[in-house]
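Researcher: We plan to redesign the surface later, but first we want a full-length starting point. Tokens attached.
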């Protein structure tokens, strides 16, 4: 206990010093980056309880600090996404208090993280965004390095270890992308899919801002992040990344027809050359327990809609998944995880909760620029393969994707008129000063 207290004191002192020496226009971005670092490194299910709780409250505090710091960007219109997010929390907590009180405390911490992260990110200025994305990429690269160590050296997640069975043996997952009994790495996050999600958000962010980066940054970061994604073995995240990158390609400023044609030709050649391997991989995928479990989760929807009307509307309470299995509303297979966020939301928070989640996504997609939309496409893809609203790091990144401030107008990727005029005015002031 003394050791953890000393470590906590050192961390808090370091954070305070870092905030004091950081220019005001970058402090909010630093708060967001440090909160993300905390959630990625300290909230693994296998980490000690004291570490998890301290990290969760620390991240909430950092996001909250970033949200209330002076300056920054203000929302120009009523923020319906935030309304939906808060309403989801209120409904979830109210229903949980009545139907399943055991999940209420965790939900409160999750909603506090999401709301504070959303408001903090919504107010990020241009310099803040640079600081936050730099921090996110550094975290993702660190996770890649940890994943390599886990894959080749320890065979268990670093530093928190793996979940244990009743007999004390470690639970390991086989990597379907590599085959041959290769393991899936989890990094410090505690599971291959959240691990891959952190890397995927960083990869999409780098590619979407490639014009502002030096070429060597792309040459170093993109292969490293791709390697980390491969070691994670997450096919659903790969699919989400591919969809996000395709959206970025479609909205490129110039040469979009040539680029899309090049992708089409390359895809056609790959299909022709590797047709046998692709067919084998598809057969393996559709026969795998992972696919069958996710496909089977859809069968729960009619059953969930046959519950009593009040439960159909508001669900059985956040965290009541095991109870829904016991009552026969979720698929009765050996694998007791739905791995479908939309079905889980329908079961635990009802039609009301599902409508609020879909409302967040629809409004954010409509109002966002191409960067936000490419990140949200990733989260939409993962909605059908993982229950990410119960993971702190993933929920924070999801909330920040919903809130990401638009840097451009429309889908063209061109600077908005306001930014052009601001840049012109800035150049004019510099010229006057030079005289």
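Model: Full-length starting sequence:
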């Amino acid at each position: 206990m003394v050791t953890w207290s000393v470590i906590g004191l050192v961390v808090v002192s370091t954070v305070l010093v870092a905030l004091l020496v950081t220019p005001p226009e970058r402090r909010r971005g630093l708060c967001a980056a440090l909160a993300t670092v905390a959630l990625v490194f300290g909230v693994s299910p296998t980490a000690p309880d004291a570490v998890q709780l301290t990290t969760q409250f620390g991240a909430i505090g950092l996001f909250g600090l970033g949200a209330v710091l002076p300056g920054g960007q203000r929302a120009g219109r009523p923020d319906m996404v935030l309304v939906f997010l808060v309403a989801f929390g209120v409904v979830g907590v109210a229903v949980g208090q009545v139907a399943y009180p055991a999940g209420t405390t965790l939900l409160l911490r999750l909603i506090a993280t999401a709301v504070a992260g959303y408001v903090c990110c919504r107010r990020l200025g241009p310099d803040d965004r640079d600081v936050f994305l730099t921090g996110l990429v550094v975290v993702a690269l660190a996770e890649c390095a940890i994943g390599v160590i886990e894959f080749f050296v320890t065979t268990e997640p670093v530093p928190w270890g793996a979940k244990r069975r009743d007999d004390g043996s470690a639970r390991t997952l086989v990597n379907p992308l590599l085959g041959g009994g290769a393991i899936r790495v989890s990094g410090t996050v505690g599971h291959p899919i959240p691990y891959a999600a952190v890397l995927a958000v960083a990869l999409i962010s780098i590619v979407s801002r490639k014009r502002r980066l030096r070429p060597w940054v792309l040459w170093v970061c993109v292969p490293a992040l791709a390697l980390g994604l491969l070691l994670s073995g997450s096919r659903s995240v790969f699919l989400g990344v591919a969809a996000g990158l395709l959206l970025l390609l479609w909205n490129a400023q110039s040469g979009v027809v040539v680029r899309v044609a090049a992708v089409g030709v390359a895809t056609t050649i790959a299909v022709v050359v590797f047709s046998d391997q692709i067919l084998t991989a598809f057969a393996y995928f559709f026969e795998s327990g992972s696919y069958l479990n996710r496909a089977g989760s859809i069968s729960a929807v009619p059953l969930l809609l046959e519950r009593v009307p009040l439960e159909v509307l508001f669900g059985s309470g956040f965290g009541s998944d095991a109870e829904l299995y016991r009552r026969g509303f979720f698929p009765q297979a050996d694998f007791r995880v739905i791995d479908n966020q939309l079905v889980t939301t329908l079961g635990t928070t009802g039609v009301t909760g599902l409508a609020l989640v879909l409302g967040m996504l629809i409004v954010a997609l409509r109002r966002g620029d191409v960067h936000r939309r490419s990140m949200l496409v990733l989260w939409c893809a993962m909605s059908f393969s993982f229950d990410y609203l119960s993971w702190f790091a993933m929920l924070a990144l999801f909330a920040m994707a919903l809130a990401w401030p638009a840097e451009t107008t429309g889908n063209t990727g061109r600077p908005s008129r306001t930014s052009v005029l601001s840049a012109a005015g800035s150049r004019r002031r510099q010229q006057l000063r030079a005289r």
